[in-house]
Design goal:
alpha/beta; Purple Acid Phosphatase, chain A, domain 2; five-stranded mixed beta sheet
Length: 187
């Protein structure tokens, strides 16, 4: 029986929006014994990838704030773990679509988030799981045979009443299940 757990993270925005990686993330990924960490972009500084790599190998893609390694980080990746095919992207795909997305958000607000899901489904029609970020809005949804996961933002939520979050992807015998890990303010 093959069992693999992956850590999913996006939109860390260190140091442009948050001073450092939330102190609860690494222990949570360690406790889950993650085999790898998938970062869906907007990392902002390579120190975040180095910190995550202390727990498990990191596979990352470029987000719209990732200027530091733009030649090294691809816009998307196709990975496979335990026989499960995974598509990883930030969500914006390129700069022209990013500008159109900003306009849609200004006009329609969070209702435009569904567009990103549809974009990712069209971009990765042949994978079992799609992981993306960009919207800062956590989501776990099935679309036919595909599971789509947005771990939300590890640094800050954009929707009122939400908290930062990361996610875990559990793979067992070719079947997948995802769970969100909320990071509410510490008391």
């Amino acid at each position: 029986m093959t069992e693999i757990t992956l850590g999913l993270i996006a939109d860390t925005h260190v140091p442009d929006r948050k001073r450092g990686l939330d102190a609860r993330i690494l222990p949570a990924f360690k406790a889950a014994n993650v085999a790898a960490i998938l970062h869906a972009g907007d990392i902002s500084t390579p120190a975040v990838l180095e910190e995550l790599a202390q727990v498990a190998p990191v596979h990352a893609v470029r987000g719209n704030t990732d200027w530091f390694r733009s030649a090294e980080l691809p816009y998307s990746r196709r990975l496979e773990f335990g026989g499960v095919r995974i598509g990883l992207a930030h969500g914006h795909l390129n700069w022209s679509s990013y500008l159109r997305d900003k306009l849609a958000y200004l006009l329609y607000g969070p209702r435009s988030f569904e567009y990103f899901t549809q974009r990712m489904l069209a971009f990765f029609p042949d994978v079992d799981v799609i992981v993306f970020g960009h919207t800062h809005e956590p989501m776990i949804r099935e679309f036919g045979d595909q599971l789509v996961v947005n771990p939300g933002s590890a640094s800050y939520a954009v929707m009122p009443g939400r908290h930062p979050s990361v996610a875990l992807l559990h793979i067992a015998n070719g079947k997948v299940q995802a769970e969100l890990l909320w990071l509410p303010p510490e008391k």
